[in-house]
Each structure stands twice: as structure tokens, then as C-alpha cells.
Amino acid sequence: MDSILHFFMNHFWWIVPLAVIVSIAIKDIFFNRAHTIKHNFPVVGHLRYLLEKIGPEMRQYIVANNREELPFNRSQRSWIYASSKRENNYQGFGTDQDQNAAGHIFINPAMFPFGLKPGHPNIEDPAFVPCAKVIGLANKRKKPFRPYSIVNISAMSYGSLSSKAVESMNKGALKAGCYHNTGEGGLAPYHSFGADVVFQVGTGYFGVRDELGNFSMEKMEALVKKNTFVKAIEFKLSQGAKPGKGGVLPAAKITPEVAEIRQVQMGKDVISPACHSAFGNVPEMMDFIEKVADRTGLPVGIKSAVGKLEMWEELADLMAERGTGPDFITIDGGEGGTGAAPPAFADHVSLPFAYAFSKIYKVFAERGLSDRIVFIASGKLGFPAKALTAFAMGADIINVAREAMMSIGCIQAQVCHTNRCPAGVATQNKWLAAGVDVTLKSERCYNYIKTLRKELLEITHACGYEHPCQMTMRDVDLSMGDNNMTIKLRDSYKYDKVKVNFTSMQDIKDCHYLGGPAIAKKKEGQLV
Questions:
Q1: Which residues pair with 303 in a beta bridge?
Q2: Which tens digit of pLDDT belongs to each residue from 333-388?
Q3: What is the pTM of this model?
Q4: How buried is 494 (Cβ within 10 angstroms: 0-12 exposed, 13-18 middle, 19+ buried)?
Q5: Using an 8 Å Cβ cutoff, are 455 and 447 in contact?
Q6: pLDDT at 121
Q7: How, if at all, do strands 397-400 and 151-153 pair?
Q8: Which of 40, 77, 203, 415 has its CA 20 to 30 A from that of 24?
Q9: CA–CA separation, 386 vs 79, rounded Å?
Q10: What is the DSSP letter of 370?
Q11: Which residues does 57 contact at the CB level (< 8 Å), separation at least 6?
């Protein structure tokens, strides 16, 4: 017995591994029925599944070049990370992009850029750039709202994102002066640190629903009255990732707090209906918008992906006829998506942003309605050139979602739907979420938004304008690819943007509807 034990101890280093290998082989050959590869090639077959599992990471960090990944390539992610950390976000030795590739954006600079005169608001703050329009003013709402920032945080719900991620974004938004859209998951304590908030209402009416899951006007009034930082209400008709299909929050992500906020049960997937129960057609929706605006006093808008145009045309015709309608319209491109979506919907249902926005803007511009609506654009626009292209097409504001996630640490692991986000951003796992340092990440969110606004202004000034709203369809060219020629946006999309009523940045700064950090100044009597 002693000799056997002595032998085992002396040869432990190879006996144990051999036993493990033999055990795996026996299991693969005699008990495995699910995987043919493992059965036919015991032990070695496991390497195939290991490589498959780590394949995305290997391609992301080793195989793919700087410009070929989707949805965001390495160069785009690096720019966000560097901007959020206040590191050097420049590049040397010229561009590595193929400028002859079809769709490449060229912004046309002026011979003489716009010069800032002494006392100009952008001398004091190079990132000061509010919205050129006031939301709700055209429809004479009781509480019109001019967003302090043209770059804002798009709709991402608490539940889909962790509490620390939402808190980081809200505190970053407060410092940057931008608004924070709640997403359809209701108003959480983590949205409530002082930033301006756009309260989104989806088909599940989370946070403002009655016992049967229907919309409750009384709860909406109470929420707005209690939370004065809510500046506007957005009804989500659909979103770019899954238009025509309700949102899904897996049961694994539903904590007691999430269940309480959403007024749903624990232990069950929360599946939002595909349709609203409060209205079922365009006239009913318009009547409903007016009721909500009247009862709350706030501007009310809609968010939607785009496909068929018939109902958009009906909406525009009724707005022209009645003189009422949504105060803002958020167009979500089909390339969007921060949570879970069926691949068929994410890949094929609804138009990408550029096609979607151009079609909808033309519908309202042709009827003389563009000055009554604040157009909000969403869909991978969190980069200077893409954002300015959206402004040239008629957007008044851009919303950023995944870009904001990356500013607080998202690494594009693309496991948002599994509750295993390694960065602690899109998960309710307490251990993973604990890695998000709110103080640090909120500062990074602020830095990213501020940097994006600053660079937007710098390019705007290079084009000879004071504000991005002055960009036109003639200020941006698109490469046509193989013939090495370019075409202007107006020729590509067949319309001209309607001129925005803009006077000066100083007039915007003095506007008493201005939100963001200006609220404190108003109380001190510094704004007229």
C-alpha cells in the first residue's frame, strides 16, 4: 500500500491529467448524444467549441483591422474611449479610410471659417451648443423646453442597463447639460440625480400603468408633478432594433427593484405588446397626445422606426389641418439596438437612419411643418461627421445610446441579452455591475459628450457657420465609389433642408426656456 501511495505521489503530475482526459473521453464516447464532433473525436473535439466560443474576441482584438468591425469598428471605439478619458484622440500620418469607398462622407469647408468675436458664448465654453428650436413652443405648451445640448443620451431602460450604468449616465448628463431619456422601463431613482429627463412611454406603460397594464393618466400626472426634472414625454411607437415588436426583458434581469418600478411580476420575462392600447390609429394618437400635453403641461413627442409612409403622410396631413400634433419626432434608424432583438428584425426590418430620416423629413417639409417639429435623430450618430450629416439633413438633435455605453466602459461584447455583460453596463448581476465606478464613469460620459459637441462646433465653424442647424444639404458630399466622383446630399436624397430660424448663439443662451445647467442661472436672475 505504501509503495502504491509513494508511486502515486511521485507521478501525480501525469496521473491526474491522464485520469481527467480518460474521463472526458469515456463521457464523450458513451454518454454524449448532443454533439457529433465530441463523440467522433473525443477530447480533441472540445477544442472546436472552445475556439468557437472565443472566436469573437480573437477577431475583435487580433484578426480584424481598424475599420472593418460591426456594429462599431475599432477606430470608432478608440475615439470614444480616448475622448471619454480626455486622452489624445488625434491620429497621425493621415487617414486610413478608403475615401473612394461608396458612401464616404465629405464635409465641405468654407474658404473663410466662422470667427468668434469677443464675448461670444463659445469663447467661454467651446462646447456650448443648445438646440436651435424650442420643443413645444409651436403648439403653445405650458412648459416649452429648449435642450441645453444638441447631443443627448438616448432611450435605454433601467433593467436593460444596470443601476450603476444608468446613474453614471445621469450624473454625466447633469454635468454636460444634456437630457437623459429613460427608455420604456419607467423612471428609476438612478434617473433622478438632477439631469433633464425625457420620460419615454412604451406599449407596456411601465411606471404609468394601472392594474390591468393600461395607461394611467393619473399616474402620469403624479409622476410629472413629483419629478420636475422631467421636461418632455416621448411615446415609443417602435424602435430601430425591433420595429413592430414589443421590448423583451428576460426574467434573469428582473430584480425586486426593477419589478417595483415597472409594476410587473418577478420570475417572468417581461414582453411589451407590439401595439399601444391607448390609441390605435393616427387620429386617436393625435387626440391622445393633446390630452397628455394638456394634463401635464409638457411637450409630447413620438419615437419610431420607419418603413411604410402612408401613416406618416396621414399624420402630416392631419397636423396641417388641425394645427396640432407631436412637438418632436424621434427617428430611430434600423441599425440601432442596445438590448435584445431577434436577428431577422435587427437585420432586415425598418430602414437605416439616412434613408428613414430623409423620407420622413420630406413628408413634413413638403407640408410646411418642419418649423413646428423638433426632429431628433438616432442611429450610430455619435461621431462628428455622421452627426453633422444628420444636421445637414434636417435633424435638430441627436441621441446617442451605444456610444454613451462605450463612454462608461462597454467593450462591445454583444452579450447584452444574456445578463453577462463583462463591463457591468448591461446586466443586473451585482458582481459584474459592482465594477462600474460611478464617480469615474460619470466623468467619462461627460467628457465624451462635451468632446463630441466641441468637435461638432469646430467643424461647423470650419464650414462658415455659427450653429450646426445652419448646415445644409449642399455642405456634405457622398462618395459614389467606383467612378471616384461625389454627389451632394440634396442630389442623393432629392430635397433641400428648410432653413431653421436661427439668429445667434447669444440669443439661445439668453432664452428663458433653456434647460440644463442654465436652470441654476435662471434662479440667480442671470438669464433674461
A1: 236, 330
A2: 877 666 666 666 666 677 888 999 999 999 999 999 999 999 999 989 999 999 99
A3: 0.88
A4: exposed
A5: no
A6: 96
A7: parallel
A8: 415
A9: 14
A10: G
A11: none
